[in-house]
Amino acid sequence: MRRLTRKWNQFTAKILDLPQDVVQDLPRITMIGNVQLYVENHRGVLHFSSENLKLELTKGTLEVFGKDLVIRAILSEEVFIEGWIDNVKYVP
Fold it and tell me: How many whole angstroms separate alpha carbon 64 and alpha carbon 50?
């Protein structure tokens, strides 16, 4: 059933010319250098410190490691982080 739903979503996205991240509820991650990170479509902050951020995603988690991390803006499905970003890790 999941496979059929996924195929239907992909077909609909192609017909309507919609981005895959919107149709499949995938995170959109934009990183500028190693100092800014913008994540859309997250499901909540699981952990935050100046050296680690862990976000819940629809399918898995996203971990950000660095130094002097600061959340500059946070909305229900968007988060904007600044600091020295060393590593970004997706865990399915």
Answer: 10
DSSP 71: E
Closest residue by Cα to residue 69 from 79, 81, 78: 81
Q: Strands 60-74 and 36-40, how do they pair? A: unpaired
The CA angle 15-22-41, to the nearest 5 degrees, is 175
pLDDT tens-digit readout, 43-78: 999 999 999 999 999 889 999 999 999 999 999 889
pTM assigned to the model: 0.76
Q: How many residues does the structure list for the chain?
A: 92
CA 15, distance to chain mean position in Å, is: 25
Domain ranges (residues) in the chain? 25-91
CATH no., domain 25-91 = 2.60.40.2000
